[in-house]
Amino acid sequence: MRHFTNVKDLGDLKQAVAEALEVKANRYNYQHLGQNKTMLLIFFNSSLRTRLSTQKAAMNLGMNTMVLDITQGAWKLETERGVVMDGDKPEHLFEAVPVMGCYCDVIGVRAFARFENKEEDYNEMILNQFIQLSGKPVVSMEACTGHPLQSFADLITIEEYKSKERPKVVLTWAPHPRALPQAVPNSFADFMNETDYDFVITHPEGYELDPRFVRGAKVEYDQKKAFEGADFIYAKNWAAFTDPNYGQILSKDRNWTVGVEQMALTNDAHFMHCLPVRRNMIVTDDVIEGPRSIVIPEAANREISAQVVIKRILEGI
Ligand code: CP
């Protein structure tokens, strides 16, 4: 593997999950791969899980790690070409990225959608500049349109907890006070569409995701109908994707909050969320604290998904 930006980079997903379970059982067996190699993690946005789990994964593989928060302590970066740089940004991404590439062997990048320009967001301008200019393998740690390390961890978790070969998995929109990117639901749909699970997406009208990620999956606008017989409920908020409402909040309807009443419609489903989660907006206290909630093992698997990806990259260097 050279870069990791979406599900296709993993190849056969069954093999990837099998490798993940092997790595999980023997996570310190591959330290030779990362000896004298350095992983640089670049954050344009905040993080708890991605920062810690990716660093831990790299350390499990014997790597040195460095973390840079672009918004704290680094020079403010200009990203547009042709700009007269007489404002508050003293450095251009075009110099900063190749310089970062000089100091490491693998780069992880987190750069969310900015909701200023849909085309720029959906063309993954910043992530692609790292791929083109760093000279090093690049791992998406959540970009504008996808969060594949999260979705790979989600898939590993579903495989660990499923009690039937072909579970019903429901991705549900839930309310949130701020406009959030579509990266997590896009990637989750992308991964689920590569499995033979019974996959259903439910959201209020107006919250349709990019068809390139939905890929013909069933969309049900009635959340209660969607929940019937579900084995896994995956909750997430996202802002509108479709024009002219790109990046906007269209609803904060708390009837969509996942509570005990909704979960009672399911086949005793496990509750999943990528975290961080706004309690009693996305999910009630009772559900997230309940016995069917698997948000903590799901987060723990972030270390494993990252380790498989970095391991494969190191094996190819
Ligand atoms: N799920 C996830 O990516 O968490 P962080 O934003 O805390 O990294």
Describe this protein's structure.
There is one protein chain. The chain has twelve helices and eleven strands. It has two domains: 7-146 and 302-316, Aspartate/ornithine carbamoyltransferase (Rossmann fold); 148-298, Rossmann fold. Helix 2 packs across helix 12. It is α/β, with parallel strands linked by helices and 317 residues long. A five-stranded parallel β-sheet has the order 9-8-7-10-11. Strand 1, helix 2 and strand 2 form a beta-alpha-beta unit. The site of phosphoric acid mono(formamide)ester has 9 residues, from helix 2.
Outline the fold blueprint:
Layout: H1 13-25, E1 38-43, H2 49-60, E2 64-69, E3 77-78, E4 91-92, H3 93-102, E5 106-110, H4 118-122, H5 125-133, E6 138-140, H6 148-161, E7 168-173, H7 183-192, E8 198-202, H8 211-214, E9 218-220, H9 223-227, E10 232-236, H10 260-263, E11 270-272, H11 285-289, H12 295-316
The structure holds phosphoric acid mono(formamide)ester.
Phosphoric acid mono(formamide)ester binds near residues 142 and 275.
